[in-house]
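INPUT
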Amino acid sequence: MQLSDLQTPAVVIDAGRVARNIDRMQRAADAAGFRLRPHAKTHKLPALARQQIARGAVGICCAKPSEAMVFAEAGIEDIRIPYPVHPSKQQQIIALIDRVRVSIIVDNAEIATAWAEVMARAGRTLNVLVKVDVGFHRCGVDPVSPEAHHLISLVSALPGLKFCGLLSHAGHGYHAASETALKLIAEEEVNALTRLAAHMRHRGVEVEEISVGATPTARFSLRHKGPTEMRPGNYVYFDRTQAGLGAATFDDCALSVLSTVVAKHPGRIILDAGSKTLSNDGARGFLPLEGYGALSPSPSGDLRPDEAFSIERLSEEHAIVRVADGASDVKIGDRVRVLPNHSCVVSNLVDVVHMADGDTVVESVPVAARGRIL
Amino acid sequence: MQLSDLQTPAVVIDAGRVARNIDRMQRAADAAGFRLRPHAKTHKLPALARQQIARGAVGICCAKPSEAMVFAEAGIEDIRIPYPVHPSKQQQIIALIDRVRVSIIVDNAEIATAWAEVMARAGRTLNVLVKVDVGFHRCGVDPVSPEAHHLISLVSALPGLKFCGLLSHAGHGYHAASETALKLIAEEEVNALTRLAAHMRHRGVEVEEISVGATPTARFSLRHKGPTEMRPGNYVYFDRTQAGLGAATFDDCALSVLSTVVAKHPGRIILDAGSKTLSNDGARGFLPLEGYGALSPSPSGDLRPDEAFSIERLSEEHAIVRVADGASDVKIGDRVRVLPNHSCVVSNLVDVVHMADGDTVVESVPVAARGRIL
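OUTPUT
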């Protein structure tokens, strides 16, 4: 089957670029002495998780217990859930423990204690990392607070829990205004974790793992000593935001949406891919990036966007594209490709993605872990 | 089963409010002499489409042929696809024609001609409405242009097509800055269609249907003579945007997301529902509405938001909620409810919704037409 045989909109994955992205990140991690544990939320595909592990990853991350179960059932043996899973999900976590090596994060003493009680009752042990807030201000303890020291000591002492180490996610890297700012965020993340680890080791607590995350900061994190693991996810596909943050070139981007022009009016064309395929996620980047994706007017070949086309608005099933004067002529029925702002959410919107080698569709793969919000 | 037995995040539908919303809109349409043809994209549930038809709707709208097929297979007999379906979807449209009464829209003469050729070859007739742009500037022909007259004449003359009438969608109503502006948009929509219909009738073209759409403008459209049909969709659930546009009160909103507090830090709480459940769609309304939904700190009862809680940011699996000083104490493990900005996209994100009567879960229903983008 060829790309031209697909009904649109269709999410197309360039299998060669995926393999190259996986290889490059693994090579970089290996060279720096970091274990690589990719976040599988980007692809949600057991086949790609297996490919990452075959290339050297120590395991994967999943966002929620139900997402983890999809990968556990598909044979992935080591799954970290870098999420403050609440003990109301104890049945799901115990089911995972009984099947694979699983770890979660905690950022609260009461919840850590509750998990210890659950595990004591269940006769299991839960691997736990303490989540450290390195500036994103989502979850995590302040690394220089007595609360952090207390929580780490508590987790390392509680029966039923195995304290594995410290974990952070520099999600604020997505909002960095420059390469320099991003570099600094990565540096601060490593410093916060290594200092906290040193402090706790000095107090007699063994801190085995120091795990940092996020694709934008990955290239800078690798320059530092201290972390034992990195957890980028998006790098497997990349997207317009990663290009905007200098983490990828357009030639690295592996996921695109093949779409048909369904209407044309003065100054605009309308595509059959809207927010139900592309999402309304905005783009991030050092330079302001407007719109809901970058359009390439060719149905195949490289994904370099043509700036004469600007995806100004989305409805659920329409992209409204402003066409500049002098742009190449695109007609109703023509097929174009959109590089989405955020590839992870595109994976979550569609039931199937099409793995392609050039213009050949190698396989249409169900997105096995789509929609696993529990 | 009770709401408290659900794993979170969970999309909960108040069945009583749905019934009331369906009844009220039908009563208003009946009183004004409009046929009601709800857009099913909001709920994507055959059971609710049947409920709408049982209460008096003449049929439904669907966004794409694949969405229509779900409802056709579920026994809905009259389906309009107010989308400029491209002839590359001819097999799907023919399959629908062979099963139900189906209609689509066109806004282009070449595409109308192409559809006529498809139908001639296939020995079928396709019901077609001409899409008129009443100011949203997405699809549709300019109602005062010679192009509009030409297209309508063409469609009414082409063998293989049955010209059914004119159709518009005042999507720009969602951006109205005031009740007065919204009223004016609805008035202009009706005027544009009725004038164009009069012009075409004067030229000897029969214009059977005049179909207007959108929930925000519905209450104003009904005050006018001329249209034969209205196609609101969102009214079945409503959402924060509709409350912001005066189309609903919080007591009318039937869809909410039950969510658990999974982390708490100074000035903020974190919920287990992120953009994978709520979407990153912003809110619309006459007054600026910030954030990604409105939070009600009670797991049951009415949905009135507590403004001490502001959903400032979403990650895919987290909502980061700013908590004002003096807000009621919400602890980790507590359950809260979020009224989303946009209910249609929430339906498209989850595999299942939970129909509730008060705190009792009456039925957990698969979202049969979720993700039907083709």
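end of record. The mean pLDDT of chain A is 97.
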